[in-house]
Amino acid sequence: MNIDKVRELDHQFLFQNYGRQDLCFERGEREYLYDLAGRRYLDLVAGIAVNSLGYSHPDIVRAVCEQAGRLIHVSNLYLVKEQAMAAEALVSIAPEPLGAVMFCNSGAEANEAALKLAVKSTGRGRVVSTRNSFHGRTSITLSATGQPKYQSGFEPLLPKIFDFIDYGSVEQLKSAVTKDTAAVIFEPIQGEGGVIPASEEFFRTARDLCDERGALFIVDEVQTGMGRTGRWFGFQHSNVVPDIVTLAKALGSGLPIGACLSAREIASAFKPGSHGTTFGGNPLATAAARTTIEVMKRDKLVERSAELGGRWAQELRSIAVQGGKVSDVRGKGLMLGLEMGEEAKRFQEYALNKGILVNVCGGRVVRMVPPLIIGEESMGELNNALREFLGA
Question: What CATH number is associated with residue 249?
Fold first, then answer.
């Protein structure tokens, strides 16, 4: 099938709710995608920070194929061996007291579960979130998202329980957390908001205020988790441990899976019937998650993300001084953003013509979240394209 036929079927049968680029891919290998005509693209988007092990990783392919041949789905009415093993693997990389896991299907569902758990556990009804954040598209997670453009048209569905502060504002945080606050939720790095890291002081203040005022601290690691920032979790850069952590994206190497982690004491607020999911934690997705963690440990990909990402950021800063089009290079590990204003979209198009896929977030920032197995030659391809663009 050629791209014209795919485009025809897309427009005829699918909701037109995505601003898709006119590309369609047939297969992938390592950090590369191949379109229907066989052209190769260097992918620095990785399914939006999902494919951290790249494409067609042999361990993931083997695990998924073997599990599909045994058991794809069984309900949570029964014990699920693969789910229990995946939970053990996930707890093994999490700091204490994060020792209990609930699996679901996505990041939005993980955040929904976290917010429900916080309200159920504390008996309180307000939540502090941050402007410019992104937490999902269910009613409650969309309400927690501090970007009105995503909420437009859905206001009647959105609960008004969120108190918004500027991301990174310690003073606003101190004023916002009260005796009515069930939780504080934010991302270690605002991804959709433009690759904006939180300061260590902001993290520590949130931890201290929650302890002092009886609220729970939720960290949304949907995009930053699983080694993306050079640590297993983005919050580890600030040397604090939240009460609840949410994960998705890279956890399943492309299989739909999300997870909510907490201390066992907090998790105990959910009794049988409190919360649930039909597909969450099914054998196929959890087999992929467990294998993902095992491969990342074995191949030291978290450490690689820190070392390679740090070096790449320095190279990009050296290149960025040319041309005056890049005002900032920021991020951690292999989650990097180039602040380029109106030039961001132009560079995205320029890179595409060179066979390089990048993504623009916040309308002004070129975001790069490549597979953690990316080769140095591939980094050089992007560097060369940036040099040429800035010199043009």
Answer: 3.40.640.10
| Of the residues 266, 298, 330, the one at which a domain ends | 298
Q: CA 141, CA 158: separation in Å to the nearest integer?
A: 9
pLDDT digits (tens, 9 = 90+) for 211-252: 999 999 999 999 999 999 999 999 999 999 999 999 999 999
Whether residue 206 is found in the same domain as residue 334: no
Give 328's Cβ-side CA count (13 Å radius): 13
> What's residue 35's pLDDT?
98
For residue range 285-299, list pLDDT tens digits in order: 999 999 999 999 999
315 and 288 co-located in one domain: no
In a domain, 313, yes or no: yes
CA distance 70 to 247: 26
Greatest pairwise CA separation for the chain in angstroms: 62
Q: Are 191 and 134 in contact (CB under 8 A)?
A: yes
Question: What angle separates helix 376-391 from helix 343-353, to the nearest 10 degrees?
Answer: 120
- Among left, alpha and beta (phi > 0; psi -120 to 50; other), residue 124 is beta
Question: CB atoms < 10 A from the CB of 97, how many?
Answer: 13
- Domain containing residue 383: 3-56+301-391
**Structure confidence at residue 392 (pLDDT):** 67
Rounded mean pLDDT of the chain? 97
195 and 336 in contact (C-beta within 8 Å)? yes
Residues 181 and 212: beta-carbon distance below 8 Å: no
Count the residues in the chain.
392
Q: Are residues 149 and 285 in the same domain?
A: yes
pLDDT digits 0-9 by tens, 146-165: 999 999 999 999 999 999 99
What pLDDT score does 322 carry?
82
Confidence of residue 323 (pLDDT cuts 50, 70, 90): confident
CA–CA gap between residue 135 and residue 138 (Å, rounded): 9
CA–CA dist 323, 211 (Å, integer)? 48
Neighbours of 68 (CB within 10 A): 12
Q: State whether 287 and 385 are in the same domain.
A: no
